[in-house]
Design a protein that fits this description.
Layout (H helix, E strand, L loop, with lengths): L7 E4 L2 E4 L10 H5 L2 E3 L2 E4 L6 E3 L1 H14 L8 H15 L4 E9 L13 E8 L9 H4 L1 E5 L20 H13 L4 E5 L5 E4 L3 E6 L2 E4 L10 H12 L3 E4 L12 E6 L3 E8 L2 E2 L7 H14 L10 E3 L5 H9 L5
Parallel strand pairs: 8-9, 8-15, 12-13
Antiparallel strand pairs: 1-2, 1-7, 3-6, 4-5, 4-6, 5-17, 6-7, 9-10, 11-12, 11-14, 14-15, 15-16
Helix pairs in contact: 2-3
Bound molecules: pyridoxal-5'-phosphate (PLP).
Pyridoxal-5'-phosphate binds next to helix 6.
Length: 324
């Protein structure tokens, strides 16, 4: 997807034109991947634009920064406000949100501690990540030959730029082999996740997902889907899952900010269930898309309304939850 190359980008507290949002080629992050970032979404609702779980995303950004000893000078609450200001400055009703903290320009020794921690927030309009029909028809995936990083190598709980070297290898291998996505195993051979999404399996009406100890990113969508599934009365088990469990599942889906809830119709050319979107995946999608579109009540307080003059924003402001 090509960028529109217009609008404003937030850089260290200043809104700059898209074309001027530049950093020096000697910045530490370019050479050593010393950055942490987030991917969140803002959706149009009948009560105005609303960010989905902005507080959870910005908390994970601050957690990632803490793990990498690169805390930014603004606290989480001010970064949330900065996201809202940037959306307002661009006038978006719906967009993808990409905040990043990165080690900037000072030295190129491997030790990053002397380099400044800089921050930026980019926004752009981004449609369905795996194509327009994926949410309904499902996608074909493979189990990739690249393992997820081992514990005590790269911290899987941190959404760090460096982890996406692994994600890129997984995605390239899958794409070159003709699949939409690759599912990685962890170093013990258990199911882990996709290159940029978490994994759910359903068998005999029980929902399974790998635990955090399987070297996965603690996805905000994963957490939302677990909550929604339990609200709907399903049993959800977070447990280590052997590879072969994916082939004999009744339904499989990938979940994440980008893929939302995307059904998987085959794995390694083995058809999953009926080869399309299963009934429980469809029920999870209905609830998830209902909440993010503002069509069903947001009982968990997951939406932050962007524009202060929207009716939704006034209601939320009175409840005292705007900007966390
Ligand atoms: C490796 C990986 N796993 C899982 C996810 C899903 O996380 P979230 O639901 O917070 O977007 C992502 C999202 O980018 C990811 O990169």
């Amino acid at each position: 997807m090509a960028f529109p190359r217009t609008g404003k980008i937030w850089m260290n507290g200043t809104l700059v034109d898209w074309a001027d949002a530049k950093i020096h080629v000697a910045s530490h992050v370019i050479h050593y991947g010393t950055g942490v970032f987030e991917g969140a979404r803002c959706y149009g609702t009948p009560r105005g634009a609303a960010c989905f779980r902005l507080d959870a995303h910005m908390r994970r950004l601050c957690d990632s920064a803490k793990i990498y000893r690169m805390e930014y000078r603004l606290p989480q609450a001010q970064m949330e406000q900065a996201v809202l200001e940037t959306i307002r400055a661009n006038g978006f009703q719906g967009c993808y949100i990409r905040p990043i903290f990165y080690r900037g320009y000072e030295t190129l020794g491997v030790n990053p501690l002397a380099c400044p921690v800089d921050a930026a927030i980019m926004l752009w309009e981004w449609g369905p990540y795996l194509g327009p029909h994926a949410l309904e028809a499902g996608v074909d995936v493979c189990v990739t030959s690249w393992w997820r990083t081992a514990p005590n190598t790269f911290p899987a709980l941190a959404k760090s730029c460096a982890n996406y070297g692994s994600a890129a290898l997984i995605k390239m291998e899958a794409t070159i082999k003709g699949f939409a996505e690759g599912i990685s195993l962890n170093t013990d051979g258990y199911l882990a996740e996709g290159s940029a999404a978490n994994l759910f399996l359903i068998r005999d009406e029980v929902i399974y997902t790998p635990p955090l100890a399987a070297s996965i990113l603690p996805g905000i969508t994963r957490d939302s889907v677990i909550t929604i599934a339990r609200d709907l009365g399903y049993t959800v088990r977070e447990e280590m899952l052997p590879r072969e469990m994916i082939y004999i599942a009744d339904e499989v889906c990938l979940v994440g900010t980008a893929v939302e809830i995307t059904p998987i119709r085959s794995v390694d050319r083995i058809t999953i269930g009926g080869g399309g979107r299963g009934p429980i995946t469809a029920a999870l999608q209905r609830a998830y898309f209902g909440i993010i579109s503002g069509e069903i009540p947001d009982t968990h307080g997951w939406l932050t309304y962007v524009y202060p003059d929207s009716p939704g924003a006034r209601e939320v402001a009175r409840a005292g939850t705007v900007g966390a």
